[in-house]
Structure formats: C-alpha cells, structure tokens
C-alpha cells in the first residue's frame, strides 16, 4: 500500500505509545498479596508477555490454578490498575504527546490494545490526549482478538485506508488478519522481521507521516 493513501492511524498501546510496566507490576503484586499468593511479579515477567490476551497471560503465570481462580486474580489486577494508572500513569515514549497532536491534524487516530477494559481510557485521561483520538477498543471489553477489534474500529468509523502501528510480532499478525497494513516501531517490547514499514523512534514515524501529501478524509 502507498502510505500517501493513509487516512487514519490505529495504535497499539504498550510498547508503542508508552511504557507503564512499573504501574502494571505494582497492580499485579498488590493483587497477589490480596489473594494471599506468595509470588512476586517483575518487569521482565510482564515484558515477556506484553500484548498477550488475558487468558494466555494467566495460563502462563498460574498454570496450576483453576480457571475460576485465574479469573478472580485477573479481576483484582484490573481493579488495581483502574485505581493506580490514573494517578501514576506510565512513561510516554519520546515526542509521543507532541507527535500525536501533530498527527491528529492530518489523520484520524485510534487505539486498539489487548489491555484490560479501562486501561486505554485511563491512558488518554492521564496523558491529556483524549481529544486527539476518535475511538479505541480493548480485549478487556470485547473479549475478542486484536484482529477482530481492529476490524471493528475500522468498520464503525468508516476508515478507508488505515494502518496499524505496533511493536510486536503479534501486532503484525493481527494487522495482517484484519487486512490492515502494519507499521513497526522498534523501540518497544518485541521484534518483527522484514516489516514493510519500520521506524526506530516515534519522532521518525511522525516526520514520515506528517510530510506525506494529505489524504482526503471522509466527512
């Protein structure tokens, strides 16, 4: 696809727009304490699973626990994140705030993430970027795959030529399944071999997209 045709950009969240791993670690460890589990979660633990769907994460972390117990722990983690992230947030990658504001002048911006239901909402509120995005979707709300959620936001917003920006192989596969071109950012948590479009920093991505001729946006 010719990037000059792009009218909208759908972003992954973790590893693409920010790093909130420390907030996630704190939320996880509080949940384990509340549940009476003598286990400590570390940054590497979560980084290795960043972008996974909830079921896969809890199967790996608690293989000997019942499905019901995993769901209870997941609920506690999600509740803790809902309380923790609006206060402590995360670390925005270089030039993300300024870059998104610039991109929003030319493209419709969206987020699709495999995070819990309220994490994107809390990210937008904490960062003050709510007004620059037209929509978002999460695995936590729909329980659908990332590919299906990408398809859903494309359809309900009548996106004509979107791209999906992410940092992992699973992001790339989801975009492919959704029939949306993938743009890889290499500063996040994963690697993607032979990506058609790749950027080493957010400023590099912003420069590339803001210097392209402007596509005609739908009314």
Automatic annotation (TrEMBL):
Query: What are the alphabetically sorted keywords of the record?
Result: Hydrolase
- EC supergroup of this enzyme: hydrolase
Q: Pathway of this protein?
A: Organic acid metabolism; glycolate biosynthesis; glycolate from 2-phosphoglycolate: step 1/1
Q: Per the UniProt record, which EC number(s) apply here?
A: 3.1.3.18
A Gene Ontology biological process noted in the UniProt record is: DNA repair
* InterPro entries linked: HAD-like_hydrolase_sf, HAD-like_sf, HAD-SF_hydro_IA, HAD_2, HAD_sf, PGP-like_dom2
- GO terms assigned for molecular function: phosphoglycolate phosphatase activity
Keyword Cytoplasm listed? The answer is no
Quote the catalytic activity from the record.
2-phosphoglycolate + H2O = glycolate + phosphate
Protein family according to the UniProt entry: Belongs to the HAD-like hydrolase superfamily. CbbY/CbbZ/Gph/YieH family.
What name has this protein been given in UniProt?
phosphoglycolate phosphatase
The scientific name of the source species is Adhaeribacter radiodurans
């Amino acid at each position: 696809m010719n990037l000059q045709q792009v009218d909208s950009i759908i972003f992954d969240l973790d590893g693409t727009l920010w790093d909130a791993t420390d907030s996630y670690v704190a939320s996880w460890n509080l949940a384990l304490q509340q549940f009476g589990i003598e286990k400590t979660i570390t940054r590497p633990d979560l980084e290795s699973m960043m972008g996974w769907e909830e079921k896969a994460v809890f199967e790996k972390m608690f293989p000997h626990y019942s499905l019901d117990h995993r769901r209870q722990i997941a609920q506690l983690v999600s509740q803790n994140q809902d309380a923790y992230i609006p206060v402590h947030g995360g670390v925005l990658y270089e030039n993300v705030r300024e870059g998104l504001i610039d991109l929003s002048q030319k493209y419709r911006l969206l987020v699709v993430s495999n995070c819990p239901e309220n994490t994107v909402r809390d990210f937008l509120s904490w960062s003050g970027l709510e007004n620059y995005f037209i929509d978002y979707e999460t695995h936590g709300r729909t329980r659908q795959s990332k590919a299906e959620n990408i398809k859903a936001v494309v359809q309900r917003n009548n996106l004509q030529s979107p791209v999906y920006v992410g940092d992992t192989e699973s992001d790339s596969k989801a975009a492919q399944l959704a029939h949306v071109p993938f743009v890889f950012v290499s500063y996040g948590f994963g690697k993607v071999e032979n990506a058609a479009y790749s950027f080493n920093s957010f400023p590099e991505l912003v420069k590339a997209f803001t210097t392209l001729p402007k596509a005609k946006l739908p009314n």
